[in-house]
Amino acid sequence: xxxxxxxxxxxxxxxxxxxxxxxxxxxxxxxxxxxxxxxxxxxxxxxxxxxxxxxxxxxxxxxxxxxxxxxxxxxxxxxxxxxxxxxxxxxxxxxxxxxxxxxxxxxxxxxxxxxxxxxxxxxxxxxxxxxxxxxxxxxxxxxxxxxxxxxxxxxxxxxxxxxxxxxxxxxxxxxxxxxxxxxxxxxxxxxxxxxxxxxxxxxxxxxxxxxxxxxxxxxxxxxxxxxxxxxxxxxxxxxxxxxxxxxxxxxxxxxxxxxxxxxxxxxxxxxxxxxxxxxxxxxxxxxx
Length: 288
Fold this sequence. Notes:
By secondary structure, the protein is an alpha+beta fold. The chain contains nine helices and 13 strands.
């Protein structure tokens, strides 16, 4: 039997862990690498032929690896084309479109009454500076597309904010500004599969940045009913079957920051006895 993992990097340690779990179940894995794909239209060798031998007819998506806007859209188009040939993607193209775009995620969270920090998105630098003031002159500027905390800047000084905003304005950037929430240098990551919470952790940093990639450490957490329901709902409304839901503890209660549709699990694995790679593969095979 053959199955497929869509990934920009087949040698990624997490991709290799998932591959081994597939192999335990008798599957040979094809790697679909977006940057190397040649798409032919109206040729004898059709794009759909790449998916003929898949059983089940599905692919596990572990990233599409685009950092340039044009490539983001092209690679999302590739995923849409795959779905057009009745290959189920987990997560779906729609999920990746929503979860990889912080603006869309914020809209979906607000629409479904999921608590999230006050956020303003705009293109004009003057409007962005006004928004900085509207957010209490203490906010976090984030890239619209991005992960691992890369490119995130805290603006809590007007002179610094002007310098950053007008510099980015010359680069035609979009401004995604989110109120800064005091959070004791930690946040919560909840790992969701379908309608089930599998595991969770605190991410504790030495500064306000709590991304593992930026040096934060994983610590165990006891997941209460409120956290469980909030994480499942956030994953559901963003149409994300395999999700990493990031949550802040605030004076007003829990706030959902983001929903990740390609959640890493290496750090989380250190604080749980559950085999997360096995759980992901089992879920994929049961729901393909």
